[in-house]
Amino acid sequence: MLVAILLTVLFCVMGWDGARAADLWQYGGFADLSYAQSGHHPENHQWRSKETSPRTNELAPNIGLLYLRKDPAAHSRWGVELAFQAGYDTNDLVPEPRADGTRPVSGADTLRHIARANVSYLAPVGHGVTFSAGLMKGSKTYEEFYAKYNANYTRSYITDYNPNFVLGVGASYPVTKSLELGLYLINEYRHLAHANDSPSYLSKMEWRVSDHLTLYENLYLGPDQRTASVEYWRTFSDTTAEWRKPDWRVALSYNVGTERMADVSGAPRAVWMGAALFTQRHLAGPWSVAIRPEFYWDPQGRMTDHEQLLWANTTTLEFKKHVGQQLVIVRLEHRYDRSTGSQGGFFRDGFSSPGVQRLTADQHLAILGLILAFDSA
Q1: How far apart are CA 86 and CA 12, in angstroms?
Q2: Residue partners of 377: CB distance under 8 A and separation at least 6
Q3: Domains in the chain: how many in total?
Q4: What's the Cα-to-Cα distance from 61 to each of 54, 168, 271, rounded to whole Å?
Q5: What is the DSSP string of 221-285?
Q6: What is the CATH number of the domain that holds 49?
Q7: Are the beta carbons of 64 and 87 closer than 8 angstroms?
Q8: Beta strand pairing status for 103-104 and 165-174?
Q9: C-beta separation of 165 from 147 below 8 A
Q10: pLDDT score recorded for residue 1
Q11: 138-152, pLDDT tens digit by residue?
């Protein structure tokens, strides 16, 4: 139904704007695959507690995406965005049923293949208010859900457990040339989850403090359990400070979330938090290097499903080159992860008991990532 509505709007926009908007239409796509070598050789080839690039010791088609987009503009005010995706990175977009009442929405296994499906309108109010509705990009973050747009190939834990997609309506407004604010009414923290019929709220801020410094802030507030009373609402903050120069990029992101657990006796409060320091240095020509230390603390297992403290460091050597409209990205990456806590650990070879995979506290991964992309613009 959502896609049918978007296609109808798409044809209407094409008919209304015609030649005037032809230069605003963009299309493209990319294919993303990798091989992650783990010395632990887990029998199930899975990277425990990881939602993107989740496979090890096999060639993994992590994501393939095709998109068509028209951004709204002053001379062509309607916008449309439609994108389809497939691959291992879409699997965990469908949530597992939980004791707190969370269930996947009807048709979630099909809907996970829709990356974007929204319409937008640039209203001539002040500096221009952009109204949007449908399936959209979630939090305004430094690191994206898609590896193509990042400095490292694998994503940080805070990116995995962020609301990367949202389903709802909202608006954004450039208060000044350097400050933009947005407010959205959405269904839930995870767009393919359903625990109740109450709405949630997401606000976004992008503040370009100077030519080199930008601040991002996302705030989420809403019910994500069967019990929708305000006292059980989830509160989540995602804050990033980014410093950028022609050959250097440095960003620090910090996430923290909390909610009372209605499904646990006594309704104790769960807290989780994480941070990552993103650094990238352009070396010469198509070559860059990036280093990212990070941690993620989930003492009640609310996000990762395991009570644990995760530490990681990722070092990436990147080759990135355009060949006409095609883009080739090759990344060679080393990653060290450590998981401690009562339920911490990563999968390794063998079984501790029938059907139960053995765990280890540490893992080293050598990763080769390949991204092939094309864009009309």
Answers
A1: 28
A2: 26
A3: 1
A4: 11, 29, 34
A5: EE--SS---GGG-EEEEEEEEEEEETTEEEEEEEEEEEEE-TTSTT-PEEEEEEEEEEEEEEEET
A6: 2.40.160.10
A7: yes
A8: unpaired
A9: no
A10: 53
A11: 998 999 999 999 999
- Backbone phi and psi for residue 21, each to the nearest 5 degrees, phi listed first: -100, 0
148 belongs to a structural domain: yes
Q: Residues with Cβ < 8 Å from 117, sequence gap 6 or more? A: 2, 3, 6, 81, 82, 83, 134, 135
Q: Would you say residue 3 lies in a domain?
A: no
* Residue 336 counted as domain residue: yes
Phi/psi for 212 (5° steps) reads: -115, -20
Q: pLDDT tens digits for 217-269? A: 999 999 999 999 999 999 999 999 999 999 999 999 999 999 999 999 999 99
Average pLDDT, stretch 83-87?
A: 98
What is this structure's pTM? 0.93
pLDDT tens per residue across span 4-40: 544 554 555 554 555 455 568 999 999 999 999 999 9
CA 77 to chain centre: 27
Tokens of 364: 């080293």
Give the pair of three-digit tokens for residue 123. 């209203």
CA separation for the pair 297, 312 (Å, rounded) = 12
Picking from 313, 315, 304, 308, the residue whose alpha carbon sits closest to that of residue 360 is: 308
Distance of alpha carbon 156 from alpha carbon 51, whole angstroms: 10
Instruction: Indicate the pLDDT class of residue 190, thresholds 50, 70 and 90.
Output: very high
Mean pLDDT for 101-128 is 96
How do residues 317-373 score in pLDDT, each as one tens digit? 999 999 988 999 999 999 999 999 999 999 999 998 888 999 999 999 999 999 999
DSSP letter string, 161-220: TS--EEEEEEEEEESSSSEEEEEEEES-SSTTEES-S--EEEEEEEEE-SSSEEEEEEEE
State the Cα–Cα distance between residues 162 and 145, nearest whole angstrom: 9
Q: Does the residue 234 lie in any domain?
A: yes
Structural domain of 212: 29-369
